[in-house]
């Protein structure tokens, strides 16, 4: 469910409310009680409650775990392999061919 932010124009009190998209916005300020609360335009915020919502909601039978931060990677620390070092790349530089200038000719 989205979290909406509201502001009272009378007392400038700001508050958040967790509500459905179809729910009506509050009309009265919880601080001063005056009518005319307006929804503020803010970045969208929502809460995914529960653990592993992707794993439980979209996983098919027989799928393997796809979480890259699984406990398996935590158990096996990365070992530095120093025996197989890549050979340095040799680069050849070509000298530009010198051409006689047109001023020296003729």
Automatic annotation (TrEMBL):
<feature type="region of interest" description="Disordered">
    <location>
        <begin position="61"/>
        <end position="106"/>
    </location>
</feature>
<dbReference type="InterPro" id="IPR013429">
    <property type="entry name" value="Regulatory_FmdB_Zinc_ribbon"/>
</dbReference>
<protein>
    <submittedName>
        <fullName>Putative regulatory protein, FmdB family</fullName>
    </submittedName>
</protein>
<dbReference type="Pfam" id="PF09723">
    <property type="entry name" value="Zn_ribbon_8"/>
</dbReference>
<feature type="domain" description="Putative regulatory protein FmdB zinc ribbon">
    <location>
        <begin position="1"/>
        <end position="42"/>
    </location>
</feature>
<feature type="compositionally biased region" description="Low complexity">
    <location>
        <begin position="69"/>
        <end position="80"/>
    </location>
</feature>
<feature type="compositionally biased region" description="Basic and acidic residues">
    <location>
        <begin position="87"/>
        <end position="98"/>
    </location>
</feature>
